[in-house]
Design a protein that fits this description.
Elements: H1 2-35, H2 51-100, H3 106-135, E1 141-144, H4 145-162, E2 165-171, E3 175-178, H5 180-196, E4 203-211, E5 215-222, H6 229-232, H7 256-266, E6 270-275, E7 281-288
Parallel strand pairs: 2-4
Antiparallel strand pairs: 1-3, 4-5, 5-7, 6-7
Helix pairs in contact: 1-2, 2-3, 3-7, 4-5, 5-7
């Protein structure tokens, strides 16, 4: 009888331990696959919701986010390579044409090369800025978004007048904490985007700031063509440009709203884009509110 109970206990314990450790085995196998580069695998642990199920679900969520992030980085690298290759290819073509025709007037060639080089420099600076904001390598200080909005408006007022766009500003004092330079870049990008992608004549841009109990808001609205919600949802992706939204000069390098989104997230905020019913775009950057600066 004792021998039977001993054997029964050992067999039962072995079966019970196997059933208890089976989820850990599946999680371990998934971890090894992820370490080898397979991010598409999911555990999908069945059964009741216990500690093992919660751990497996959390691991699946982490893998999904990591897979999406890697895919986004791969698309970004491919798009960046394409965008950087374009001005280099244009430069090479212009130089080949100049070499084949030594008697050609160099004035137009020089002007074109300068324009292509300036675009390549703008793209490089935008990529560096995007990388810096993703790393959050900046010093936080007390800033007022309403003052930043005024400075951005003064800077871009000549461009707005050139394009026949009226800028309307309003709002309250909106204290927050962050990098003044980056938040100015964020506001300037939003305002520049609203001016460039506007109506051909008599366009308007409304720039306002507001403060709530726990956050401050910077909102930029502009008139323009009607935009589909599906298109608006892609505008913050790097190098994504809406069809029909490119008009002449000042078109940018396709990183304006991507930089805005990156700066907003680096400041623990959220960025919301919505098409206006009458046409155009409404963009709201919401950042954590900071205590008013006393200056002491």
């Amino acid at each position: 009888m004792l021998a039977f109970l001993l054997v029964f206990g050992l067999v039962g314990g072995w079966i019970l331990a196997g059933r208890m450790l089976a989820p850990l085995t599946r999680i371990t196998d998934a971890t090894r696959m992820a370490a080898n580069g397979s991010l598409s695998h999911r555990i999908r642990l069945p059964g009741r919701r216990d500690e093992f199920r919660e751990l497996a679900d959390a691991f699946d969520t982490m893998l999904a986010r990591l897979e999406a992030h890697v895919a986004e980085q791969q698309r970004f690298a491919a798009n960046a390579s394409h965008e950087l290759r374009t001005p280099l290819a244009i430069t090479q073509t212009l130089l080949d044409v100049a070499r084949s025709d030594p008697n050609r007037d160099s004035g137009a060639l020089d002007e074109r090369l300068r324009a292509v080089n300036a675009r390549a420099l703008d793209l490089t600076e935008a990529l560096l800025l995007l990388s810096r904001t993703d790393q959050r390598s900046f010093t936080r200080e007390h800033v007022d978004l309403s003052l930043i909005a005024e400075e951005a408006t003064e800077t871009l007022l000549p461009l707005a007048e050139k394009r026949g766009v009226t800028i309307e500003t309003s709002g309250d004092i909106t204290p927050t904490a962050g990098s003044y330079a980056l938040l100015l870049q964020m506001t300037t990008n939003l305002l520049h985007n609203a001016i460039v992608h506007n109506l051909p004549e008599h366009g308007t841009v409304q720039l306002s700031t507001a403060i709530g109990p726990e956050s401050v808001m910077l909102t930029v609205e502009n008139t323009g063509d009607k935009l589909a919600p599906q298109l608006v949802s892609t505008l913050t992706e790097p190098f994504q440009r809406g069809a029909g939204r490119m008009r002449g000069d000042h078109a940018g390098v396709g990183l304006g709203l991507a930089i805005v989104k990156s700066i907003t997230q680096a400041h623990d905020g959220t960025l919301t884009l919505a098409p206006r019913a009458a046409g155009g775009l409404c963009v709201t950057a919401e950042l954590p509110v900071a205590a008013p600066h006393t200056g002491r």
